Amino acid sequence: MNLRFIGTFIWYYGIRSIKRGPSYIISSILYPLVFLFLITIFSAGRYLDYAVIGGFISIVAMNAIYSGSDMAFQRLQLRTQDLFVATSIGPADYMLGMGLSYLATSLPGILVYAIIGAYLGLFGLANALLFTLLLIAVLLGTMAISFTIFGFIKHVRNIWGIAGIASILLTVLPPTFYPYTLLPKALLYAFMLSPITEVSMLSQGVFGLAPAAYYAIPVLIIEIAIYSGIGIKLMRWREK
After folding, report:
1. Where are the domains of the chain?
2. pLDDT tens string 24-37
3. Among candidates 163, 228, 229, 10, which has minimal Cα distance to 98?
4. What is the pLDDT of residues 178-199, one digit of tens each?
5. Which of 36, 110, 134, 226 is placed for a possible disulfide with 51 were both Cys, Cβ 3.0 to 4.6 Å?
6. How far is it, in rounded angstroms, from Cα 196 to Cα 199?
7. Which residues are CB-contacts of 173 (< 8 A; sequence separation ≥ 6)?
8. What is the spatial distance between Cα 225 and Cα 68, in angstroms, rounded to a whole number?
């Protein structure tokens, strides 16, 4: 693992982009805030805690989705990947660098939701630490499935439309902003094809909002491993 490359990529492509592109950061924060507002209004505040926890998850997940779309754009349009192939940088280094740089762009949104969560008294030491681990898991899981999806893309014109569709399907339909117990078992199991569903289920258990779903843990680990392997393969790092 090339830690120097990953760290440099995070700094240049992630942290510095917060200053270079503040409009994108604001838009990524507003998306879950709109859901927070709507859910609070229509549920008369009953699902407010779910919406706050879901806001954390959706911000990280959406940025992970767009990291895959950005990698596809760079591969197809800018040919950035071609510059790294002849170096000691490997596909896993590039994937981690891209994904973690987008995590850096999630930090302003995470801070906003941390303030809201602290104001509502959601956080204790134990659940905050566990939730941090789950946010790392949703980053890795969504990044893996995103790279898998965008590895199939053949033309740059399809990237952003598919990114928008993936964002809705992966962050809105699963029980990110509402109790997973509301879903019929068959539909819940179908949604568990996305790592975001398992993280949402486990997060609701951590905060005592729903029964603990321990069976989601091995499913989450297996999915991250499988999607990561497929994503790396689909990157076609070197031409045969």
Report:
1. 3-234
2. 777 777 777 887 88
3. 10
4. 999 999 999 999 999 999 999 9
5. 36
6. 5
7. 191
8. 16
